[in-house]
Amino acid sequence: MAQPGFIRNFSAVAVIAANRLVAVSALEDFQVGPAVDASAVFVGVTEQGTDNHLRVDVVMTQSAPVEFGGDIAAGDLIVADADGKAIALDLADYVGETKIHVAGWAMEEGDAGTIGDIFLAPQLIATIPSA
């Protein structure tokens, strides 16, 4: 059972469903957009979502329920799929990337469609390309 910590209300740049990962928007301060991969800094997970492009509550610390976009095992590092759902990080998908943003890690296992808890621990995996 998720125990959300800090929750902040943000302007949303697009419609964002509930229980989705969101990322920092480059458009304006204090705006979030749907997370679509591991290329942007994760802000957290939406609570109720929004359907009007106005405001959205985002769980930013501790744990949050998020919809899984694939099979996830407890302890997997979490990134977003194209729909903002949580998927397990597979480094093979990021060959050649120098920055991979991780949202946190899974607290439980589940398959696609499961609403499962993740521990929010945003971090950056930086790699040095080989010469």
Written description of the protein model:
With 131 residues, the protein is mainly beta. The protein has no helices and 10 strands. It has strands at 7-12, 21-24, 31-34, 42-46, 55-59, 63-67, 77-80, 86-88, 99-106, 115-126. It has a 5-stranded mixed β-barrel. Strands 6-10-9-7-8 form a 5-stranded antiparallel β-sheet, with no helix packed on it. Strand 4 and strand 5 (55-59) form a beta hairpin. The protein starts with 6 loop residues before the first strand and ends in a 5-residue tail after the last strand. 34% of the residues are buried.
Question: Could you name the key traits of this structure?
Answer:
131 residues, mainly beta, 5-stranded mixed β-barrel, 5-stranded antiparallel beta sheet, 0% helix, globular
Task: Write a concise synopsis of the structure shown.
The chain has no helices and 10 strands.
The arrangement of helices and strands along the chain is: EEEEEEEEEE
Taken from the alpha-carbon principal axes, the silhouette is globular
Largest sheet: 5 strands, mixed, barrel
Count all strands and give the number.
10
Strand proportion, as a percent range, falls in 35-45%
* Number of H/I helices: 0
Poorly predicted segments: none
Radius of gyration: 14 Å
